[in-house]
Amino acid sequence: MNGYDGSKDDLRKRLNRVEGQVRGISRMVDEDKYCIDILTQVSAATKALETVALSLLSDHLSHCVAQASAEGGDFAAEKVREANEAIARLVRS
């Protein structure tokens, strides 16, 4: 069971909205819309994806990492390392 099982519907809704936003951005480029308007939509889509990422990270920490920490040992250390690397990737992006 994944940590996000309880929020799958919300994640799907958010991802569907992002998909629609990206299609809209593509359409704006095809229609030669103003650059700043396109950038505004790119920013909105990026923010929406960041929201999905933070939700997944929160679920991972509260489920996967917490469970591994309760078990302890190398498995717990691995889950903490994975979480740290995921956070670093999010911060860099």
From TrEMBL:
GO terms for cellular component: cytoplasm; protein-DNA complex. The keyword Cell membrane does not apply. One of its GO terms (molecular function) is DNA-binding transcription repressor activity. It is found in: Cytoplasm. Keywords: Copper, Cytoplasm, DNA-binding, Metal-binding, Repressor, Transcription, Transcription regulation. It comes from the Bacteria. The keyword Repressor applies. CDD domains: CsoR-like_DUF156. Its main location: cytoplasm. Belongs to the CsoR family. PANTHER family: COPPER-SENSING TRANSCRIPTIONAL REPRESSOR RICR, TRANSCRIPTIONAL REPRESSOR FRMR-RELATED. This is DNA-binding transcriptional regulator, FrmR family. It comes from Microbacterium paraoxydans.
